[in-house]
Design a protein that fits this description.
Elements lengths: L5 H11 L3 E4 L2 E6 L4 E4 L7 E4 L3 E4 L2 E8 L10 E5 L6 E2 L8 H4 L4 E2 L2 E4 L2 E5 L6 E3 L6 E2 L12 E3 L6 E2 L12 E3 L6 E2 L8 H4 L4 E2 L2 E4 L2 E5 L17 E2 L12 E3 L6 E2 L12 E3 L6 E2 L21 E2 L21 E2 L21 E2 L21 E2 L12 E3 L6 E2 L12 E3 L6 E2 L12 E3 L6 E2 L12 E3 L6 E2 L12 E3 L6 E2 L12 E3 L6 E2 L12 E5 L4 E2 L12 E5 L4 E2 L11 H8 L1
Parallel strand pairs: 3-6, 4-7, 6-8, 11-13, 12-14, 14-16, 15-17, 20-21, 22-24, 23-25, 25-26, 27-28, 28-29, 30-32, 31-33, 33-35, 34-36, 35-37, 37-39, 38-40, 41-43, 42-44, 43-45
Antiparallel strand pairs: 1-2, 2-3, 5-6, 9-10, 10-11, 18-19, 19-20
Length: 576
Amino acid sequence: MKKISLLFLFVASTLMAQETAFYNDLKFNLDPIHKTAEVALNPTISGEISIPESIPVGQETYLVTEIGDKAFKGAKHLSAVVIPSSITRVYRSAFDGTALMANKEMWHDGALIIDSVLIATNKSIKSKYIIPTNVRLIACGAFEGNKAVARVEIPSHITKIDHYTFSGCKNLSKLTISPSVKWIGQDVMTGSGIYQNDKKWRKGALIVDGCLIAMKKDGPAKYDFKSKVPVRLIAAGAFMGNKTIAKLTIPAGIPEIADGTFYQCQALQEVIIPQSVTKIGALAFAECGKLKSATLPNTVTEIGARCFYGCASLTEQNLNDKITAIPTGSFFGCHSIKTIDLPSKVEAIYAGAFAGCTNLEQVKFPETLRYIGDQAYAGCAKIETLALPMYINEIRKGTFQDCRQLYQVSLPEGLYAISDEAFMNCLMLEKINVPSTTFRIGQHAFANCQHLEHIDLVDQIHAIETGAFRDCKMLLEIKFPEQLETLGEDAFRHCLNVRKVEFNNKLEAIPARAFMECKALEQITIESPIEALGDEAFMDCSRLKTVELNADIIAWGKNVFKNTRVDQRELMAQME
C-alpha cells in the first residue's frame, strides 16, 4: 500500500478505533457519529463466516458498512464469507493470506467476486475488461498493480470508484467512467498508463470523463476548471500537496469536497464553495496553513474529521443549522479563529474539535448538546467563561485542559463525573460549584489551577483520584464529602495555602503524598475508620505541629511526617 494511503488509515482510526465491539466472534470498530461499524482486525478467524448487516451496541444499532484494511489478513483457514448488502467499502488487503484468495475455484476470468463485490484481479484478466453487471461494489485497490489490464469500462450501476482501484496498472490506457459514479477515491490511477501519459494532462490536471483525478503539485497558480468536458467530480486528494494554487472557485454541480482534497495545499488562501456541495470530507482542507477563507454554503449538512485541522490562518467559519455533529479535530490548531457559532441543533462535539484554537474567545453551547469529547477545547487559552448545557453528564478527559484564562464555569445539574485532566492548567479558575449529582473527580482534574480558592465538594462524591487538586496553590480549605471512599495519591499535593482539612467517617486510608508540601497546614485530626497512612502523606508540611490521632493506624508509610514538626515515632508509640 502506498505511503499516502496512511492519510486515510489515520482518519479512519481517529473516527473509529476509539470504540470497539465484538459480535458473533468478530471485532468491529465503531463510528459514533454515523452509528456505523467497520469489520476490524480478525486475523485468527476461521471456517465460514457471515458478516452481519448490523450489530447491537448497548441501546444503539450500528450498521456494518465497511470491511477494513487487513481485516482478515493472515486468517489462513477462512474458507468462506458472506458479505451483506450494507457494505459500501471493502479493502482488497482485507483477505490477503486467506484460503479465499488461494481458492482457484472462486476466481473467474481473472477476478475474485464475492456476493457482488469485486475483491481482486490477477494476471489472467482480459486486456479489455468490462466489469460484470452483477458487481455492485469494487474493492479498494481491486486492480492495483495489474499489468495485464489495458482498458476498463465502469458500468452504469456503479456509483463509487474507491481508493487505489487502478493504481500501478502500467498498461491501462483507457478508463470509461459512467455518469453514475458519484464519488472517486484517492490515487485511483497513480502510476497507471493513463497517469503517466503526459498527453492526458491539461493545465496541470488529469481529467477523465469529467472527473478531476489529480493536480500536479507544481502546476499553475490559478486553475479555472474550464475544459471541453465540464468537471462534475473532484477525486479525494486531487489537489493534495499542491504548492502553487492560491485561490480557487469550485464549479457549480460538484456534490462534495472529498477526503483530503486540498490537504497540505501550502499556498491556498481562499476557496469559494458552490451551493451544490453538501459534504466536506475528512482532512479536506487540513494543514492549509495560509487558508483564510473557505465559507461553507448553507447546503452543507456534514463536515468530516480534521476537515480544517491546522488551518492556522483561518479567521472565521460559519456552520449552518443542518450540521448536528462537530467531528474529531475539525478545527484543531486554527489559531486565528476568535469566535465560532455552533449550530443550534448540534448534539455532539468530538475529541479535539477545537483544541489549540489559541485565540478563540467565546463559546456558546446550544441547548441540544449532549456530548463533548476528550480535549475538545484543550489549549483554548483565551476562553474566559463557560456555561455547559443541561444534557452534559460528563466532562471528559482534558476537555478544557490548558484554558489558561478561564475563570468562571457553570456546570449543569445531572453531571456525574469530572474526568481526568478536565480543567488541568486552568490557571485563572477561581471557584467551582460541583453539582449534587457528581460522584467522581478524576486524575489531575483540577491540577495546577493556581487561582482556585474554593471548591464545593458535594456529599455524593465517592472518589477524588490521583493528583486531582495538585498544585492548587490558592486553595484554602478542604472538607471531605460524606460519601468519599477513595482518595488518590498526590490528591492535594503542593496546595500551599490549605490551612484546614476535615476528613469524613468513610475514608479508610490517606494515600502517598496526598497532602505533601501543604506548607500552611498546622493542625489535623485523623479519625476512625482511617487505618493507613501512605508514604510521605504529609511530608514537607513545614508548619504542621499538631496531629490529633483518634484512629487505630494499622499501616504506617515511610516518611509520613518528614520535614514537619510532628514526630512520627512518637505517634506510633502512642498506638502501642
